[in-house]
Amino acid sequence: MKSIHAFTLLVAASLSFTACKGESKKEQNTVPNVPTVRANGLKIAFYNQDSLTKHFEYYVEMDSMMKSKQLRFQGELQKREKALQGYVMKNEELAKAGSLSAFEIQSIQEEAQRRQQALMQYQETEGMKLEKETGELLSVISKKIEQAGKKYSQKHGLDILMMHGAAGQFVYVNPTMDVTKEFIAYLNQHQSEIEADMGKTKK
Question: In CA terms, which of 111, 128, 155, 162 is 20 to 30 Å from 85?
Answer without folding.
Answer: 128
